[in-house]
Amino acid sequence: MNIAKKMDTMCLDTGSYMMNFAGCAQCQACEPIKVVNVQRTEDEDNDEELVTFQHVCHECEHVIANHEYTFRVVDEYQVYQMYCALCGHGEDERSIMPCDPRGPKE
Question: Are strands 63-74 and 48-56 parallel, antiparallel or unpaired?
Fold first, then answer.
């Protein structure tokens, strides 16, 4: 079951997309949530970065969602991906050239 909302090209490597947060499922608190257990891994040989963290309730410490963000370079493009039950699922691809050889995105 895919519960993550499709976020088109939005890919967050930090923070939280609070528009999707109605409250903690465990204690119903609507306070701002915390970001904890941030891990950043860079593989310079493969031009890849992976960021993972958890969204946690400020009141009861319930883990609301696990967040994963990936950045990598593939051929002449920067590829961004995000998957998180709270923030949603997004991906984007941008040319590393000043002008995208494929033309403007529609």
Answer: antiparallel
Please report whether residue 68 resides in a domain: yes
Which residues form the domain of 77?
18-95
**Integer Cα distance of 32 and 57 in angstroms:** 8
Residue whose token pair is 């400020």: 58
- Domain assignment present for 1: no
- Using alpha carbons, list the distances in angstroms from residue 21 to 32, 33, 54, 55, 74: 9, 9, 14, 11, 33
36-84 confidence digits (pLDDT tens): 999 999 988 878 999 999 999 999 999 999 999 999 998 888 999 999 9
